[in-house]
Design brief:
alpha+beta; 57% helix
Protein backbone atom coordinates (compact mmCIF):
# COMPACT_ATOMS: atom_id res chain seq x y z
CA UNK A 1 0.00 0.00 0.00
CA UNK A 2 1.41 3.38 -0.97
CA UNK A 3 2.33 5.70 1.87
CA UNK A 4 0.12 8.54 0.64
CA UNK A 5 -2.96 6.49 1.44
CA UNK A 6 -1.97 5.90 5.06
CA UNK A 7 -3.19 9.24 6.33
CA UNK A 8 -5.65 11.37 4.38
CA UNK A 9 -6.72 14.58 6.06
CA UNK A 10 -9.79 16.40 4.76
CA UNK A 11 -10.84 19.99 5.30
CA UNK A 12 -14.27 21.11 4.04
CA UNK A 13 -15.46 24.70 3.61
CA UNK A 14 -18.80 26.15 2.55
CA UNK A 15 -17.82 29.33 0.72
CA UNK A 16 -20.57 30.10 -1.81
CA UNK A 17 -24.15 29.57 -2.82
CA UNK A 18 -22.97 27.73 -5.92
CA UNK A 19 -19.81 27.28 -7.99
CA UNK A 20 -19.61 26.80 -11.75
CA UNK A 21 -17.42 23.70 -12.04
CA UNK A 22 -17.10 23.95 -15.82
CA UNK A 23 -15.59 27.42 -15.53
CA UNK A 24 -12.81 26.01 -13.32
CA UNK A 25 -12.42 22.92 -15.53
CA UNK A 26 -11.93 25.12 -18.58
CA UNK A 27 -9.26 27.16 -16.80
CA UNK A 28 -7.48 23.92 -15.84
CA UNK A 29 -7.71 22.51 -19.38
CA UNK A 30 -10.03 19.69 -18.31
CA UNK A 31 -12.25 18.80 -21.24
CA UNK A 32 -14.92 16.98 -19.27
CA UNK A 33 -18.32 18.66 -18.85
CA UNK A 34 -19.47 18.51 -15.25
CA UNK A 35 -23.04 18.08 -14.13
CA UNK A 36 -24.54 19.38 -10.88
CA UNK A 37 -24.32 15.95 -9.21
CA UNK A 38 -20.58 15.28 -9.47
CA UNK A 39 -17.59 17.07 -7.92
CA UNK A 40 -14.69 18.56 -9.84
CA UNK A 41 -11.56 16.73 -8.65
CA UNK A 42 -8.27 18.58 -9.03
CA UNK A 43 -5.06 16.58 -8.60
CA UNK A 44 -1.36 17.52 -8.46
CA UNK A 45 -1.00 18.72 -12.10
CA UNK A 46 -3.97 21.13 -11.86
CA UNK A 47 -3.11 22.28 -8.34
CA UNK A 48 0.48 23.03 -9.32
CA UNK A 49 -0.76 25.56 -11.86
CA UNK A 50 -3.05 27.15 -9.28
CA UNK A 51 -0.73 27.43 -6.27
CA UNK A 52 2.32 28.39 -8.34
CA UNK A 53 4.64 25.50 -7.48
CA UNK A 54 4.75 21.71 -7.77
CA UNK A 55 2.08 20.25 -5.51
CA UNK A 56 3.18 17.44 -3.22
CA UNK A 57 1.96 14.00 -4.29
CA UNK A 58 -1.33 13.17 -2.63
CA UNK A 59 -2.64 16.73 -2.64
CA UNK A 60 -6.20 16.98 -3.93
CA UNK A 61 -9.08 19.46 -4.03
CA UNK A 62 -12.72 18.55 -4.67
CA UNK A 63 -15.11 21.34 -5.64
CA UNK A 64 -18.88 20.89 -5.36
CA UNK A 65 -21.52 22.79 -7.30
CA UNK A 66 -23.42 23.67 -4.12
CA UNK A 67 -20.61 25.97 -2.99
CA UNK A 68 -18.33 23.68 -0.97
CA UNK A 69 -14.65 22.90 -1.40
CA UNK A 70 -12.88 19.95 0.23
CA UNK A 71 -9.08 19.92 0.52
CA UNK A 72 -7.13 16.69 0.95
CA UNK A 73 -3.68 16.77 2.58
CA UNK A 74 -3.19 20.46 1.77
CA UNK A 75 -1.61 23.21 3.85
CA UNK A 76 -3.35 26.37 5.09
CA UNK A 77 -1.27 28.38 2.63
CA UNK A 78 -2.47 26.24 -0.27
CA UNK A 79 -6.08 26.61 0.91
CA UNK A 80 -5.73 30.40 0.83
CA UNK A 81 -4.07 30.30 -2.59
CA UNK A 82 -6.99 28.28 -3.92
CA UNK A 83 -9.48 30.74 -2.46
CA UNK A 84 -7.56 33.59 -4.12
CA UNK A 85 -7.72 31.65 -7.39
CA UNK A 86 -11.50 31.33 -7.16
CA UNK A 87 -11.79 35.03 -6.41
CA UNK A 88 -9.71 35.76 -9.52
CA UNK A 89 -12.38 33.90 -11.54
CA UNK A 90 -14.99 36.36 -10.23
CA UNK A 91 -16.96 33.85 -8.19
CA UNK A 92 -19.18 35.34 -5.50
CA UNK A 93 -17.57 33.83 -2.41
CA UNK A 94 -18.27 34.22 1.29
CA UNK A 95 -14.66 33.84 2.41
CA UNK A 96 -15.28 35.79 5.64
CA UNK A 97 -17.44 32.91 6.90
CA UNK A 98 -15.39 30.10 5.34
CA UNK A 99 -13.87 29.04 8.66
CA UNK A 100 -17.23 29.36 10.42
CA UNK A 101 -18.78 26.74 8.15
CA UNK A 102 -15.99 24.18 7.94
CA UNK A 103 -15.07 20.72 9.20
CA UNK A 104 -12.01 18.48 9.53
CA UNK A 105 -11.96 14.75 8.91
CA UNK A 106 -9.39 11.99 8.56
CA UNK A 107 -9.10 8.62 6.88
CA UNK A 108 -6.85 6.06 8.55
CA UNK A 109 -5.84 2.69 7.16
CA UNK A 110 -5.26 -0.20 9.56
CA UNK A 111 -5.20 -3.70 8.00
CA UNK A 112 -5.71 -5.22 11.46
CA UNK A 113 -8.82 -3.17 12.20
CA UNK A 114 -12.47 -3.43 11.28
CA UNK A 115 -14.22 -0.58 9.48
CA UNK A 116 -14.92 2.13 12.08
CA UNK A 117 -16.79 5.42 11.64
CA UNK A 118 -16.68 8.40 13.99
CA UNK A 119 -17.46 12.08 13.50
CA UNK A 120 -13.71 12.84 13.41
CA UNK A 121 -12.20 9.96 11.42
CA UNK A 122 -12.87 6.69 9.65
CA UNK A 123 -10.68 3.61 9.96
CA UNK A 124 -10.64 1.20 7.04
CA UNK A 125 -8.63 -2.03 6.70
CA UNK A 126 -7.70 -1.20 3.09
CA UNK A 127 -7.74 1.66 0.66
CA UNK A 128 -10.55 1.78 -1.89
CA UNK A 129 -10.48 4.29 -4.73
CA UNK A 130 -14.02 5.51 -4.02
CA UNK A 131 -13.42 6.32 -0.35
CA UNK A 132 -11.89 9.83 -0.62
CA UNK A 133 -14.66 11.10 -2.90
CA UNK A 134 -17.39 9.68 -0.67
CA UNK A 135 -15.84 11.16 2.47
CA UNK A 136 -15.51 14.53 0.74
CA UNK A 137 -19.10 14.37 -0.48
CA UNK A 138 -20.52 13.68 2.98
CA UNK A 139 -18.53 16.33 4.85
CA UNK A 140 -19.22 18.86 2.08
CA UNK A 141 -22.95 18.23 2.43
CA UNK A 142 -22.62 18.43 6.20
CA UNK A 143 -21.02 21.89 6.25
CA UNK A 144 -23.43 23.17 3.59
CA UNK A 145 -26.32 21.85 5.66
CA UNK A 146 -24.89 23.54 8.75
CA UNK A 147 -25.06 26.90 6.98
CA UNK A 148 -28.70 26.26 6.06
CA UNK A 149 -29.43 25.27 9.67
CA UNK A 150 -27.96 28.52 10.98
CA UNK A 151 -29.93 30.60 8.48
CA UNK A 152 -33.09 28.71 9.38
CA UNK A 153 -32.52 29.78 12.99
CA UNK A 154 -32.49 33.38 11.75
CA UNK A 155 -35.86 32.83 10.07
CA UNK A 156 -37.21 31.26 13.27
CA UNK A 157 -36.10 34.33 15.22
CA UNK A 158 -37.94 36.57 12.73
CA UNK A 159 -41.12 34.52 13.15
CA UNK A 160 -40.71 34.71 16.95
CA UNK A 161 -40.71 38.49 16.60
CA UNK A 162 -44.00 38.37 14.69
CA UNK A 163 -45.54 36.14 17.36
CA UNK A 164 -44.42 38.59 20.05
CA UNK A 165 -46.19 41.44 18.22
CA UNK A 166 -49.45 39.48 18.05
CA UNK A 167 -49.14 38.60 21.75
CA UNK A 168 -48.96 42.32 22.47
CA UNK A 169 -52.20 42.85 20.57
CA UNK A 170 -50.60 44.22 17.40
CA UNK A 171 -52.78 42.36 14.96
CA UNK A 172 -51.58 44.14 11.83
CA UNK A 173 -48.32 42.72 10.46
CA UNK A 174 -46.24 44.08 7.61
CA UNK A 175 -47.58 42.19 4.58
CA UNK A 176 -44.30 42.60 2.66
CA UNK A 177 -42.41 41.17 5.61
CA UNK A 178 -44.76 38.17 5.66
CA UNK A 179 -44.14 37.50 1.97
CA UNK A 180 -40.39 37.99 2.38
CA UNK A 181 -40.21 35.56 5.30
CA UNK A 182 -42.31 32.97 3.46
CA UNK A 183 -39.94 33.27 0.49
CA UNK A 184 -36.93 32.77 2.79
CA UNK A 185 -38.47 29.56 4.13
CA UNK A 186 -39.10 28.30 0.60
CA UNK A 187 -35.58 29.25 -0.49
CA UNK A 188 -33.90 27.33 2.31
CA UNK A 189 -36.05 24.29 1.64
CA UNK A 190 -35.06 24.48 -2.03
CA UNK A 191 -31.39 24.87 -1.10
CA UNK A 192 -31.35 21.63 0.89
CA UNK A 193 -33.15 19.59 -1.75
CA UNK A 194 -32.04 21.03 -5.08
CA UNK A 195 -28.65 22.53 -4.19
CA UNK A 196 -27.13 20.32 -1.51
CA UNK A 197 -29.00 17.25 -2.76
CA UNK A 198 -29.12 15.59 0.65
CA UNK A 199 -31.38 12.84 -0.70
CA UNK A 200 -29.13 12.09 -3.70
CA UNK A 201 -26.24 9.61 -3.64
CA UNK A 202 -23.04 9.67 -5.75
CA UNK A 203 -23.18 7.62 -8.94
CA UNK A 204 -20.55 5.15 -7.73
CA UNK A 205 -22.91 3.95 -4.97
CA UNK A 206 -25.39 2.64 -7.53
CA UNK A 207 -22.81 0.41 -9.23
CA UNK A 208 -20.77 -0.66 -6.21
CA UNK A 209 -22.38 -2.19 -3.13
CA UNK A 210 -19.26 -1.53 -1.03
CA UNK A 211 -19.39 2.12 -1.99
CA UNK A 212 -23.09 2.29 -1.17
CA UNK A 213 -22.53 0.73 2.26
CA UNK A 214 -19.63 3.11 2.96
CA UNK A 215 -21.62 6.17 1.90
CA UNK A 216 -24.67 5.15 3.94
CA UNK A 217 -22.57 4.66 7.07
CA UNK A 218 -20.77 7.98 6.54
CA UNK A 219 -24.07 9.80 5.99
CA UNK A 220 -25.50 8.16 9.10
CA UNK A 221 -22.44 9.21 11.13
CA UNK A 222 -23.03 12.85 10.16
CA UNK A 223 -26.81 12.39 10.57
CA UNK A 224 -27.50 13.91 7.16
CA UNK A 225 -30.96 12.39 6.76
CA UNK A 226 -31.99 13.15 10.34
CA UNK A 227 -30.85 16.78 10.05
CA UNK A 228 -32.66 17.09 6.76
CA UNK A 229 -35.88 15.72 8.29
CA UNK A 230 -35.59 18.17 11.19
CA UNK A 231 -35.21 21.04 8.74
CA UNK A 232 -38.23 19.82 6.81
CA UNK A 233 -40.32 19.63 9.99
CA UNK A 234 -39.22 23.12 10.99
CA UNK A 235 -40.11 24.36 7.52
CA UNK A 236 -43.57 22.76 7.73
CA UNK A 237 -44.18 24.29 11.16
CA UNK A 238 -43.01 27.73 10.02
CA UNK A 239 -45.15 27.52 6.88
CA UNK A 240 -48.15 26.68 9.05
CA UNK A 241 -47.44 29.67 11.27
CA UNK A 242 -46.99 31.93 8.24
CA UNK A 243 -50.32 30.73 6.84
CA UNK A 244 -51.98 31.65 10.13
CA UNK A 245 -50.27 35.05 10.09
CA UNK A 246 -51.50 35.63 6.56
CA UNK A 247 -55.04 34.69 7.57
CA UNK A 248 -54.93 37.06 10.56
CA UNK A 249 -53.45 39.86 8.47
CA UNK A 250 -56.00 39.36 5.69
CA UNK A 251 -58.82 39.30 8.25
CA UNK A 252 -57.59 42.52 9.83
CA UNK A 253 -57.19 44.13 6.41
CA UNK A 254 -60.69 42.95 5.44
CA UNK A 255 -62.14 44.24 8.72
CA UNK A 256 -60.42 47.58 8.14
CA UNK A 257 -61.92 47.83 4.66
CA UNK A 258 -65.35 46.99 6.07
CA UNK A 259 -65.05 49.74 8.69
CA UNK A 260 -63.99 52.20 5.99
CA UNK A 261 -67.06 51.29 3.96
CA UNK A 262 -69.27 51.68 7.06
CA UNK A 263 -67.66 55.04 7.78
CA UNK A 264 -68.27 56.22 4.21
CA UNK A 265 -71.92 55.11 4.31
CA UNK A 266 -72.36 56.82 7.67
CA UNK A 267 -70.75 59.96 6.30
CA UNK A 268 -73.07 59.96 3.29
CA UNK A 269 -76.11 59.50 5.57
CA UNK A 270 -75.00 62.33 7.86
CA UNK A 271 -74.33 64.55 4.85
CA UNK A 272 -77.76 63.75 3.38
CA UNK A 273 -79.47 64.53 6.72
CA UNK A 274 -77.51 67.76 7.02
CA UNK A 275 -78.53 68.87 3.53
CA UNK A 276 -82.16 67.92 4.25
CA UNK A 277 -82.18 69.94 7.48
CA UNK A 278 -80.46 72.87 5.79
CA UNK A 279 -82.98 72.89 2.97
CA UNK A 280 -85.88 72.54 5.44
CA UNK A 281 -84.68 75.50 7.50
CA UNK A 282 -84.48 77.65 4.38
Amino acid sequence: MEQKYQDLKFKAYSIAKEIDLNKIAEQCNLRKKYTWEEPLILNEPELSGIIGYDAVEGRQVMVFSFGCVVFVNTTNSEVQKFFDYLISLNFELDISNAYLYSDDYEMKIDPASEMEFTDEYVVTPEYEVFIPELIATVIAKSVALEKVEVKMEGITDAVDGMIAKIEKGKMRLDYKNLVRTTARIARHSYNTIAYIMILDKPDVTWANSQAQNFYDRMANTFELNDRFEILQRKKDILNGIMDNFSSVTNSVRGLFVEWVIVALITFEIVLAVYEFIRDYIR
